[in-house]
Amino acid sequence: MIVLSSLCFQFLIGQQNYTDYTSAYTGASYNIQVGNEGELYIDLMSFDEGDSKVGLIVKRKRVGDILNCLDSALSKYNSWKTVAINNNVKDFAKSIDCNCKSEAYFKYGDWQFDNFVQPTFEFKVVESNGKVWHLLIVRTGKLVSSTNQYIDHKGGAIVFSSSDEIVNFMNYIKTESVDLFLSKKPKTEELFK
Predict the structure, then answer these.
(1) How confident is the model at residue 177 (pLDDT cuts 50, 70, 90)?
(2) Which pLDDT does position 1 carry in this prediction?
(3) Per-residue burial over 85-117, b = 16 or more CB atoms within 10 Å of its CB, e = otherwise
(4) H/E/C letters for each residue in the chain?
(5) How far is CA 188 from CA 11, 36, 79, 169, in A?
(6) Per-residue pLDDT reduced to its tens digit, 31-75
(7) N or C: which end of the chain has fewer CB within 10 A?
(8) Residues facing 106 on adjacent strands
(9) How far apart are CA 136 and CA 139, in angstroms?
């Protein structure tokens, strides 16, 4: 219980706004925050109705695995997008095998955390309003509170609609980029000279 309280306290005050990433498909921007230990809090598009907050927590030790999955998915995305365009495919979905782990947060009254999330990756082609979209979707799947199995959330996703969106996101979450951001922030003791 003390550990959970500590985690909730850190979640509420221990993060700094870092950057945003944008999805052309959803027409929205999503916030990425950085915790004191360099962990990332990545807001996602929510599958729950209403103004439900949901996101991934990527600890430093997991960033490499996430980047490897995104790199592999980017390669498939580029290849399959070319095939889809050359063959005038307008409706298609296929999962991309990749194994990585993270944690997630969601708002259900108070902040809830799911400590065992295995994101899935999917290439998808959809036609919407006369435009054909080639998407890479990273989903959390259903989330369940680690403190109460009866509190759950439909989950969320990152929806990329271009190689540039994927590459930009990968650059944002690289440890080197996060470290550079953190190094530019003054330490608390430096504020009071």
Answers:
(1) very high
(2) 39
(3) eeeeeeeeeeebebebebbbbbbbeeebbbeeb
(4) CHHHHHHHHHHHHCEEEEEEEEECCCCEEEEEEEECCCCEEEECEECCCCCCCEEEEECHHHHHHHHHHHHHHHHHHHHHHHHHHHCCCCCEEEEECCCCCEEEEEEECEEEEEEEECCEEEEEEEEECCEEEEEEEEECCCEECCCCCCCEECCEEEEECCHHHHHHHHHHHCHHHHHHHHHCCCCHHHHCC
(5) 18, 12, 48, 29
(6) 999 998 899 999 999 998 866 799 999 999 999 999 999 999 999
(7) C
(8) 54, 112
(9) 10
Tokens read off for 167? 């590459």
The domains of the chain are located at 2-184
pLDDT score of 29 = 95
Band (117; pLDDT cuts 50, 70, 90): very high
Q: Scanning the structure block, which residue is given the tokens 């930009």?
A: 168
> How many angstroms separate the CA atoms of 137 and 39, rounded?
22
Answer left, alpha or beta for residue 62, where phi above 0 means left and psi between -120 and 50 means alpha.
Answer: alpha
Name the pTM for this structure.
0.87
